[in-house]
Amino acid sequence: MAIKKVLITRHGRKFYAKDLESDLHTQYGFVKKEDIEKSKEGDLIKSNTEKEFFIFSPSFIDLYRKIKRDAQIIPLKDIGFIIAETGINKESRILDAGSGSGALACFLASIAKEVVTYEIREDFIEVVKSNIGFLNLKNIKIKNKNIYEETDDKNIDVAILDVPEPWKAIENCSKALNPGGFLVSYSPSVPQVADFVNNLRKNESFVYLKTCEITEREWEVEERKVRPKSASIGHSGFMSFARKVTK
Ligand code: SAH
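Above: the input record for the complex with S-adenosyl-L-homocysteine. Below: its predicted structure, written as tokens.
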């Protein structure tokens, strides 16, 4: 069901009004559907217990945080790094494999020209389709294909692999990428990085750039109690970057 409005308390607790057919129940009491319906962007409305909420329409990131997650999705800290390192922008044509829940594909589609995403599992393709519809994206193409075996895509600016054996997809990514295009591999474990980079170094079409891991540490700021939050995200994945240099 589509999310119509976002309600946020002064302390940053966020609630989503999914449809405007019923009251919105929160731990701070309920907000009447009529109040939500007649609200304007940025209005301050109150629940039956007088708790205040600011109300506005959801932005892309509000909706993105609510997508279905059946496969392990790539965290935002890593998406941000991939975008920054490869300079993905509104002109970019992206190849993504495998789709999983389509998190990366959807995020990139919100800023790039076009995304084609490969997935071997039909059950995941259904999740991706549902997320694309939920986010109302029009520029993603899903292919039920094995990236190790085939690709008919060309003129790709950035190819991103999040598959168990990324080294098996190097040749296909090479065919799809433009000269100067980037190949990125995202892997959770060290042997995958070793096999990917060692294979890449043997391939004359690519120049290997680097492998990185991004650590995000959130801080708690409460008066003068300012310190790292105790529970932070652990390891997610390593990112290896290469550049396609030949025609
Ligand atoms: N980056 C995704 C998560 C990918 S999970 C996200 O952010 O949501 C890895 C996915 O790759 C799984 O869904 C798996 O089915 C798919 N996969 C594994 N091998 C593949 C292959 N050879 N070709 C295409 N997809 C593959």
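Notes for the reader.
Residues 71-74, 97-98, 100-104, 118-121, 124, 146-148, 162-164 surround S-adenosyl-L-homocysteine (CB under 6 Å).
The longest helix spans residues 122-135.
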